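Project standup — Tuesday

K.O.: blocked on the structure for the chain from last sprint. Re-posting the sequence here as requested.
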Amino acid sequence: MFSFQHAQNTAPKPHHEGAFQRVSVNLSGRLMLANHDEFECTAVDMSPGDVLLSSPARPRAGERIIAYIDHVGRLEGTVSRLADDAFVIQLNATERKREKLAAQLTWIANKHELGLPEDRRHDRLAPRKTVTELTLDTGEKFPCRIIDLSLSGAAVDIENRPPIGTPIMLGNMKGKIVRHFQEGCAIEFSGVQSREALTEFL
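H.V.: unblocked you, prediction finished:
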């Protein structure tokens, strides 16, 4: 199973000058240049330290970029390398933000291996509020952080992973634990939620 760690002494990869392993992602988004011009972009591969963006934008080396990437959220950094139709930005992020990004990228990288359904009917949403609690039938509450959210389920980073099949509440939504992975567990909601039901997190 994929897990982020500092890169070992392997052959250098194209566009890679950071200290972390990269993962291929192919995530759509939008970016804004320093002059506030906006462009479509695609995150081709990412690490917790940098991201390779394919875009018609033509920034300068060292230029500050703000990007909003599907399933990942807001990223900010400076251009460290330019190519014909792509560029790398070194991310300006706190250690906590890098840890969150590592968990999100681990989830994306492991999705197929975890056997999680690719349900195209339920787009994955980028939650604004990620810190919440998971409540058991017993009333026990465990702090957790939402990594991934859709109308039919969620993945949470949690230290105390309840057994698979355990009924839970995530916020005001009922569900059950269906998978475990390195950082936490995957939850399937009891029914498909409306976007209104997810407003607590969005």
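K.O.: great, moving the ticket to review. The longest strand covers residues 23-32. Residues 1-17 have pLDDT under 50 and may be disordered.
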